[in-house]
Amino acid sequence: MRRTLLILALALPALAQHDISKVDPAPPDSAIATPLPESQRRMLRKYDLPDLAGAQQALGSQLIDGRLPRPLIDFLIREGDVQQRVSMFEGGLVVINMTGASTIFKRVIIPPDALLAYTKATTAAALRSVDPYSLAAPEQSRRSQLRVYEENGTYVERVFHPGRVLPKPLGDAITPLRDLLRAISEDREVTSSIAGYLPQEGDELVSDDHNVYKVTRVFDLVVELRCLTAPTTIFVAKKDLHQYFIGKQTPR
C-alpha cells in the first residue's frame, strides 16, 4: 500500500504556492480549458507517451542563465478561424496558444524524461527524410507547419495540408505533439497559474465567464469573492479556485 501511494504521489503535478504576482493576466475572450468527449479521452490513453505526469507550473521568468530557452519543436495547425500551436523549448518548457471562438494560452514545464520522449519521437532527421514534394500543398485557411530545430540553431521545416493523408514519418512525428496539445488544452491544474495561488483580500480575479471578482474575505478553507461586474457574492474553496478563474484582472 505504501509503495502504491508513493507512485500516485509522484504522478501528481507539482503545484507551487504563490501570491497574485505569479498569476497570469486573463487575456480577453480567454478560456480555462477545452473539454473533450470521453471517446477522445480514451483514444489518447492508448499512446505509450508521457502526458502531464510530473509536470510543473511555468511561473514567472523562464530564462536559462539569463537567456531565452532554445526552441526545439514548433507545430502549427490552422483550420479556418481556429489556430492551434504548440512550441517546445530547452528545459522542458511547453507553450500552447489556441485561438478561435476563445483564446487559450498556457505554459508548463514537462520533466526531462517526457521531454526526451517527445524529442525522440519528433526529430530533425526524420522530418528531413520526408520529401516536401510528396505533401499536399496547404490552403490559405487550412495549413500545418512542423519545424524541428537542430543543436546549431538551424531547423528542418515541412508545410502541408492538415486534412490530407501524410507519409508515415511525418504522421509519427506530429501524433505525440497533437496529444500533448490536447492534454495541455484540457488541463485545469498544472497549466493554470491560479492553481496553488494563495488569495489575499483585495486581489481581483477573472472568472471563466469573464466577470471580475474581488477577494473580500479569506477563511481557512474558503474564499469569499464579490463580483465587480454583477451584483453577486460567491464562496469558493481555496483548492478549487483554478476550476472557476482564468487569471488575474489586468490593471485598470
Secondary-structure map:
Layout: H1 2-11, H2 38-44, E1 56-57, E2 71-79, E3 82-89, E4 93-99, E5 104-109, H3 112-121, H4 124-128, E6 142-149, E7 155-160, H5 168-186, E8 204-207, E9 212-218, E10 222-227, E11 233-237, E12 245-248
Shape: elongated
Helix count, per DSSP?
A: 5
Count of discrete domains: 2
How far apart are the termini?
Answer: 52 Å
In helices, the fraction of residues equals 10-25%
Strand content: 25-35%
Largest sheet: 7 strands, antiparallel
CATH architecture of the largest domain: 2-Layer Sandwich
H/E series: HHEEEEEHHEEHEEEEE
Radius of gyration: 20 Å
Report the strand count. Answer: 12
Q: CATH superfamily membership of the largest domain, which one?
A: Mago nashi
- What's the arrangement of strands in the largest beta sheet? 1-5-4-3-2-6-7
CATH class call of the largest domain: Alpha Beta
- Enter the CATH topology name of the largest domain: Mago nashi protein
Q: Enumerate the spans where pLDDT stays under 50 for 5 or more consecutive residues.
A: 1-12, 43-50
Return the average pLDDT rounded to an integer: 86
Instruction: Find the structural class using helix and strand composition.
Output: alpha+beta
Give a brief outline of the structure.
This protein has 252 residues and is an alpha+beta fold.
Model description:
This protein is α+β, with helices and mostly antiparallel strands and 252 residues long. It folds into 2 domains: 33-186, Mago nashi protein, CATH 3.30.1560; 204-248. Helix content is 20%, strand content 29%. The chain is built from 5 helices and 12 strands. It has helices at residues 2-11, 38-44, 112-121, 124-128, 168-186, and strands at residues 56-57, 71-79, 82-89, 93-99, 104-109, 142-149, 155-160, 204-207, 212-218, 222-227, 233-237, 245-248. The chain has a 7-stranded antiparallel sheet with strand order 1-5-4-3-2-6-7. A 5-stranded antiparallel sheet has the order 11-10-9-8-12, with no helix packed on it. The longest helix has 19 residues, at 168-186. Residues 1-12 and 43-50 have low confidence and may be disordered.
